[in-house]
Each structure stands twice: as C-alpha cells, then as structure tokens.
Amino acid sequence: QIFQPLHTLRSAEKELLPGFHQFEWQPALKNVSSSWDVGIIDGLSGWTASVDDVPADTIARRFRYDVALVSALKDLEEDIMEGLRERGLDDSTCTSGFTVVVKESCDGMGDVSEKHGSGPAVPEKAVRFSFTIMSINIRAEGEEDAVTIFQEQKPNSELSCRPLCLMFVDESDHETLTAILGPVVAERKAMLESRLILSVGGLLRSFRFFFRGTGYDEKMVREMEGLEASGSTYVCTLCDSTRAEASQNMVLHSITRSHTENLERYEMWRTNPFSESADELRDRVKGVSAKPFMETQPTLD
C-alpha cells in the first residue's frame, strides 16, 4: 500500500472521505460533467450567460444535484436493505426497478444581514433550495405492482430535508434566482431521462427519479412560474381565475395553466404582437409578467 504512485494514494484517500461515493448515469447526463468526486461548487456554475444578461453579482454555493442525491441514498442504505428484507425480497435479485420520489422545497430565509459587521457587502436576504427523499419503491421483475421499501416518516421535518443550494438573494429577484436555479433545473431535467447506477448493500442497483415541487409556498411558485405577485387580479397559480370569477365560483376549478403556456404568454407579453394597450395585453397573458424558469408540478404533499 505504501509504495503506490501518488495519484493512486490520493484516490484511495478520497474514497475514505464521508459523502464520497462512486456512481454512474446511464445514459450519461447531458450538460453535466461526468466527474463524481464533486464537493461544494459555486452557485452560478453551469449558468451560461448570454450577451444581454447582467452577470449576477451574488454569492451562492451548492452541491451538484446528482451528487447530493447519491449522498442521500447512501445515507439511506441501511433503510433500503431493511425494507427489502421486511418485504421478503431477495436483495441479490433486486438490482433494478427502483424508483425514488423526491420532494423539492425552496423558500426565502428572510433578513440575514450583519448588524455591525464589516465584511463584504452582500444582499441582505438569503434563499435555500433543498430536497427530501419521500419514498423508494421497487417493481420486481415479472411483478405488476411496485412495492414501497422506504417511506419518509417525517417528510416535513428539518431532519429529513437536505440543503442543495444556499444563496444570498432576495426571493423576489427573479433574474438572479433564474441564474442560480436555472442550472439546478437543467441537471434535474437531465436526470429524468437517465438511470443512476449506484452500489447499495454491496451490489450495483439502478434508480430512476421523480421530482415533485410541493415544498414551495405560493410566493415562490409565482416567482418560478413568472406570474405576477400575490396582489394580482389573477389569484390562482394553476388557472386563469380573476378575483371576481373566483368569488362567484368557489367549487368548480380545473388546472389549466402549464409551464409551456406560461412561456408562450411571456413571449407575447414581451413582443406585444397585436400592438395592444398595457391593459389589453395584460388581460391576454393573464398575469404572466416574467419568463418562468422552473416547472412546478401541482401535486398534493
């Protein structure tokens, strides 16, 4: 062991570090580097700025999304093996067919300014984006139904919630939030089309991920979907109801808003193709005033 070349010792050393796990994606993630020994990275990494973008003068630190998920799964390794045993499943045959449901949360952390500090001038608000592994299922080969082998008992607890990105930014600052969370969204999108290969309980197993954006409050949903703020005439984040319509009709509501449609409406608001007045235009786009950057799926938590 002693007389090894330095790089071999380095990599042996790395593998002893907590939170360091080797994994692979099949197919490889698009637009995400394939190195898996990644620690804390700059919040803006992965953000490709275009000409008219002002460089976001902000401080943010985050984990790469896939690395964070791997670390979370390895923390649950014993629970996963226990779940397989409880269900009477032979762990040596259960190497694929795992699905993981992840709840995403994001919220402002309020005023974090130093009262008497003389450090660097940073925005005085902070935002935290985090996730919770809600459940892990497995569909054994030849079986119709999936079996739940792990369910988070305290899904709203601070203890099960894992921070992914911390940023000094006001949650109402749409542009900066887009710059920081845009790459996170791109990584998430890439993971939806791929499978994670990770060693759990001594065997390589494959996992698929589903993301549910149920941890955002209304203000954050509006921010991420490019909608007007909560004082808007358009009260609902899922449909086009105005206050007047909603007060007339408290029962019959259907989810009519989609992320793609919001993007189209933003383009319309930006270009005003019919040369309408401000009021007419606003009525046409139903309260979409910024470019949405994160798809929030309306599901019950």
UniProtKB/TrEMBL annotation:
Residues forming the V(D)J recombination-activating protein 1 pre-RNase H domain are 24-96
What are the recorded GO MF terms, alphabetically? double-stranded DNA endonuclease activity; histone binding; protein homodimerization activity; sequence-specific DNA binding; ubiquitin protein ligase activity; zinc ion binding
Origin superkingdom: Eukaryota
Gene Ontology CC terms = DNA recombinase complex; endodeoxyribonuclease complex; nucleus
Q: Which GO terms describe its biological process?
A: adaptive immune response; B cell differentiation; chromatin organization; T cell differentiation in thymus; V(D)J recombination
A Pfam family matched by this chain, by name?
RAG1_DNA-bd
PANTHER family per record:
V(D)J RECOMBINATION-ACTIVATING PROTEIN 1, VDJ RECOMBINATION ACTIVATING PROTEIN 1 RAG1
Protein's name according to its UniProt entry: RAG-1
Organism (species): Parabotia fasciatus
Task: Give the gene symbol.
Answer: RAG1
